[in-house]
Amino acid sequence: MRKKLLLGNWKMNKTPEEAKAFALASKDVVDFALAHNVDIGVAPTFVCLATVLENRHPGLIVSAQNVNEHDHGAYTGEISIPMLKAVGVDWAIIGHSERREYNGETSEKCNEKIKALLAANMTPVYCCGESLETYEKGETNAFVKKQIEAGFAGLNAEEAKKVVVAYEPIWAIGTGKSATKETAEATVGFVRATLREMFGEAAEEIRILYGGSVKPNNIAEYMEEPDIDGALVGGASLEPDSFRALIENLVK
Q1: What is the pLDDT of residue 175?
Q2: Do the Cβ atoms of 166 and 125 come closer than 8 Å?
Q3: CA 55 to CA 49: how far, in whole Å?
Q4: What angle do CA 100, 106, 112 make, to 5 degrees?
Q5: Residue 188: which of 247, 139, 141 has the closest Cα?
Q6: Distant-in-sequence, close-in-space partners of 9: CB < 8 Å, separation ≥ 6
Q7: pLDDT tier for residue 120 given thresholds of 50, 70 and 90
Q8: Beta carbons within 10 angstroms of residue 208's beta carbon
Q9: Distance in angstroms between the alpha carbons of the first and the last residue of the chain
């Protein structure tokens, strides 16, 4: 049985002071999640990572929103794995659609990052998902299959089991639109089938999240689907009250 996971992606929001307030106010939320056997975490900006770590409930997962695949070097504006580990971070989101769109991040580059994270005993959260144009053309499966195959290239089954996948249709991120639970389950199920082709039964142990305008009022319906193991949430994860409402509805 795969353990459910709720991960909040804060994107470019919150000052360290605001992040501290959230970490302190959300301790009871983490208690509630853990009592219901759900993993729970947030992905703050780089400048807020240490603040959240210092003030969080110890059960709260703290993830970076990105990482560079190199340990050090002339990569202005980048953050390395050793830097993250030095402050106590051992998760990182990889290949979010906004990174792909605004920073030209490819699935092949994500593959390098995933391998580097796994070598450092860290957990990658690998994002995949299609544009509205791709969706309307009926090419979602072909598009996502390429992202999964490229992102997981060169991994063995034991390594693959340590990666969390997040399926986020780009057309449903920050738009107020969301895929129906049937649409989300169909694609998440296809992702698992692709992973099964690559890694056999190990695919049954890989957690696959859904993301895309997930809110307290719709998270429960997604969690009813057999292949959806949790959610990667944006705006609804920014306040302790809505964060609590997410987890309360997730476990219904």
Answers
A1: 72
A2: yes
A3: 10
A4: 125
A5: 141
A6: 42, 43, 65, 93, 96, 211, 232, 233, 234, 237
A7: very high
A8: 24
A9: 17
Specify whether the CB–CB gap between 44 and 24 falls below 8 A. no
Which one, of 19, 105, 113, lies nearest residue 60 by Cα?
A: 19
Confidence of residue 106 (pLDDT cuts 50, 70, 90): very high
Q: Is the pTM of this model over 0.85?
A: yes
Tokens for 48, please give them.
């807020």
Q: Cβ–Cβ contacts within 10 Å for residue 227, how many?
A: 19
Confidence at residue 205, expressed as pLDDT on a 0 to 100 scale:
98
CB 90 within 8 A of CB 123: yes
Residues with catalytic roles = 96, 168
Conformational region of residue 174, where left means phi above 0, alpha means psi within -120 to 50, and beta covers everything else: left
pLDDT tens for 17-74 read 999 999 999 999 999 999 999 999 999 999 999 999 999 999 999 999 999 999 999 9
- Judge contact between 64 and 30, C-beta under 8 A: no
Q: What is the Cα–Cα distance from 148 to 155, expressed in whole angstroms?
A: 12
Of the candidates 105, 112, 160, the residue with the CA atom closest to the CA atom of residue 128? 105
Question: What whole-number distance in Å separates Cα of residue 131 and Cα of residue 189?
Answer: 19
